[in-house]
Amino acid sequence: MKIDAVLGLSYGDEGKGKICHSLLEKNKYTHVIRFNGGSNAGHTIYHNGKKLITHLIPSGVFYGIKSVIGPGCVVDTHKFFKELEYLEENGIKTEGLVFIAKNAHLVQEIHTDEDSTDISIGTTRTGNGPCYRDKYARNGLRAEQYDKLEPYLIDIYKEFYGSNNKNIRILAEGAQAFHLDIDWGDYPYVTSSHCGIGSVLLNGFNHKQIKNVYGIIKAYDTYVGSKKFQPDEEVFERIQQEGQEFGATTGRKRQCNWLNWDNIRKSILMNGVNHLIINKVDILDKVNAWKIYYEGSVLDLQNQETFENWICSKGTELNTKVYFSYNPYDIKWDDKCKTAKNDLKNLDRFLG
Ligand code: IMO
Ligand code: MG
Q1: Is the CB of 191 under 6 A from ligand 1?
Q2: Which ligand is nearest to the CA of 20?
Q3: pLDDT tens digit string along 170-209?
Q4: For residue range 264-323, what is the model confidence (pLDDT) as tens digits?
Q5: 125 C-alpha to ligand 2 centroid (Å)
Q6: For the residues 221-240, what does the mean pLDDT come to?
Q7: Could you report the per-residue pLDDT of 118-128, keeping only the tens digit for each?
Q8: Separation of alpha carbons 282 and 219, rounded Å
Q9: pLDDT in tens, 5-44
Q10: 221 lines ligand 1 (CB under 6 A)
Q11: Which residues are in the CB-under-5-Å shell of ion ligand 2?
């Protein structure tokens, strides 16, 4: 069994959906599994030229691949059935493809009611926090306790460890991101699930199965929630507009800031990222500003070439391949840093 994982390395909304979609086209997977979170996620995908947004159902359905909501997730059944309908209405076949781990927990009305009044940390109001709280307090309801879910239930052990289950290749689709992680994010401004590579294993897998870890960032950072994140500079308003930085789940404006390499370095190292994807380079190009936080201060890299070379050199130091994306639809899988090596010397000179 081989697992490739897709993880957000910043604060969510890095374009994980797009990368999953692209990997599904590129590689042969037998399953896609969501391993954390619930309807708080918003994954935007361009499929056959059409923009589609999913919150809960893993992206395997776009390619007719078994799509499993894992035991680390929380499921709002009302939203689950609505999303199945939404996909079908948009020509995506879901029948016989969508499964929920029988030990996943259910988001109940009391959870969404409670969450709907939150202002303290600015949640997505999807009942996520209260549901996980009840899971750990051993007061929760599991998917297997709800009759209407019977046709969708799956036993992870039987599905993946049965004697005739050979050549399984899984794409593990993360939600949220490492800096929203319950333990590693900026507590309490975090989500209530585990968002790192360890979370994949918590869904019934082991470290020997993990092959590739795709870490996703944008060329700048965004954050949605109630802490102040965006500095008072006009350039961030422009990034917000050019990047159409509005939440896919709540429609809220995403606050913007320069990419924080100190955070990304931590995410890469702690999660064993070996492929780093930088989305939305085209947006920074539109505002023509190329800055990064590095070791606590702002580094002005002046142009796109230097910006990309700088990330290449840092990525290479951390043993990860690096890919840049310039549009919302897809990504070219050529390791830019191979060809950029010659420029690294010039870069050293530039940075003194
Ligand atoms: P994807 O998968 C961006 C943020 C919320 C809030 C905090 C806690 O699209 O990257 P929660 O509802 O989880 O209790 O809210 O986490 N948040 C996200 N921000 N993208 C997401 O998911 C998010 N999921 C939760 O805005 O600050
Ligand atoms: Mg989101």
Answers
A1: yes
A2: 1
A3: 999 999 999 999 999 999 999 999 999 999 999 999 999 9
A4: 999 999 999 999 999 999 999 999 999 999 999 999 999 999 999 999 999 999 999 999
A5: 13
A6: 98
A7: 889 999 999 99
A8: 9
A9: 999 999 999 999 999 999 999 999 999 999 999 999 999 9
A10: no
A11: 12-13, 42
The catalytic residue positions are 13, 43
- Closest-approaching ligand to the CA atom of 19: 1
The upper half-sphere exposure of residue 177, i.e. CA atoms within 13 Å in the direction of its Cβ, equals 29
| Closest to 75 measured CA to CA, from 38, 33, 102 | 38
Pair of tokens at residue 236: 């961030």
* Gap from CA of 165 to ligand 2 centroid (Å): 34
pLDDT at 166: 83
Beta carbon of 123 within 6 Å of any ligand 1 atom: yes
Instruction: Give me ligand 1 centre to Cα 181, in Å.
Output: 10
- Residue with CA at minimum distance from ligand 1 atom 5: 123
Write the single-letter amino acid at 57. Answer: I
Q: Give phi and psi for 226, each to the nearest 5.
A: -90, -5
8 A C-beta contact, residue 54 and residue 17: yes
Q: How far apart are the C-alpha atoms of 99 and 97, rounded to whole Å? A: 7
pTM assigned to the model:
0.96
Three-state SS sequence of 95-121: CCCEEEECCCEECCHHHHHHHCCCCCC
**Local structure of 14: helix, strand or coil:** coil
Closest-CA residue to 22 (of 197, 201, 279, 307): 279
User: Is the CA virtual torsion 191, 193, 194, 196 positive or negative?
Assistant: negative
> Rg (Cα) of the chain, in Å, rounded?
20
Give the bridge partners for 37, in sequence order: 73
The neighbouring-strand residues paired with 304 are none
In testing the pocket of ligand 1, which one of 9, 14, 40, 223 has its CB within 8 Å of the most ligand atoms? 40
